[in-house]
Amino acid sequence: MSQKNDRSAEDIRRSAERMKRARDEPGVSPLRGLGAFGIIGWSIAVPTVGGAFLGLWLNDVAPQNFSWPIALILGGVVAGGIIAWSWIEREGPDRKGDKRW
Fold first, then answer.
1. Closest to 84 measured CA to CA, from 46, 49, 54
2. Which among 19, 23, 32, 59 has most CB atoms closer than 10 A?
3. What is the pLDDT of residues 18-33, one digit of tens each?
């Protein structure tokens, strides 16, 4: 009987180790990818739309020979791209010095 008890204790120990490892090192969740798409989308969309509204206001306040909304939409896309890029670099997978995906 002690042989059976030893085997059961070993099974319990291995199960506890697996559970602890799963808690300490969670795997990549499929929802994380969807969350990344959302963050990247919002980080580009908000500055772009903000630039459009600011450009419309500037067209009324300070008219110029060029279109403020178009200029600020392009500026918003660039700013949003920089924000998204920095977020990807910060949250991306760590590959021991290799930051590429």
1. 46
2. 59
3. 888 878 877 777 777 7
Q: What distance in Å separates the CA atoms of residue 51 and residue 71, rounded to the nearest whole number?
A: 8
State the Cα–Cα distance between residues 90 and 39, nearest whole angstrom: 13
Rounded Cα distance between 88 and 24, Å, is 23
Q: Does the pTM exceed 0.70?
A: no
End-to-end CA distance of the chain: 54
Q: 73, 33 in Cβ contact below 8 A? A: no
CB 46 within 8 A of CB 72: no
Classified as helix, coil or strand, 94 is coil
